[in-house]
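User: Could you check the structure of this?
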Amino acid sequence: MPGPSGYPDAVSSGRFMHMVACVDDSPATEAVVRLAESVRADGGRISVVHVLGGPPFSESFLAAIGTAFGGSPLGDNSGAHREIAQALLETVCDGVPGAAPVMLDPHDADSPPDAVVRWAEDNDVDAIVAASHGDPLARAVKLVGSFSAHLARHAPCPVILLPPGTVTTD
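Assistant: Sure, the predicted C-alpha cells are below.
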C-alpha cells in the first residue's frame, strides 16, 4: 500500500521488514549484510542469500574429459561446493539477529540473478542489498556488473547496490 510519498510505506520510511542480503565469498559480503541490518525495520528479518555456482570451468572441462574416457579424475564436486556455500552462509548469519541462510540453485532459473529475483517474488521481499563487483569489462564500459544490473532491472522490490570496492572496516 502506498504511503504519503506515493511509495510503499517501507520505501518511504527507509525501513524494510524482509531484507535480502546477496552474499558470495568476496570482501564486500560483510558490508552487504551490515547495510541490510541498518535498513531493516525493528522486528524485521534478513534472508542471507547465496546462489550456488558450479565448479570452475577448468574443473568442469577436466571432469568432462575424464567422463568421456570412463571416469572423472575429479569426481562429482557438487557436494563439496554445496558444503562450502553452506559454511559461508552459516558464518555470515552467525551473530546477525533475524538472519536466515538461503541457498539457491541457479539451475532452477535462467541465471543466478534470475534465481534471486524469482525467490524474492515468492517470498514477499521488501528490498535487496547486493554488491556491484564491477568486473574489468564492466568498468571499461562504465556499466554495473551483470548480476547486480539484472537485479536492479528485474527485482520486484527496491535494490540497494554497494559500489565496487566497498568493504567494512573495523
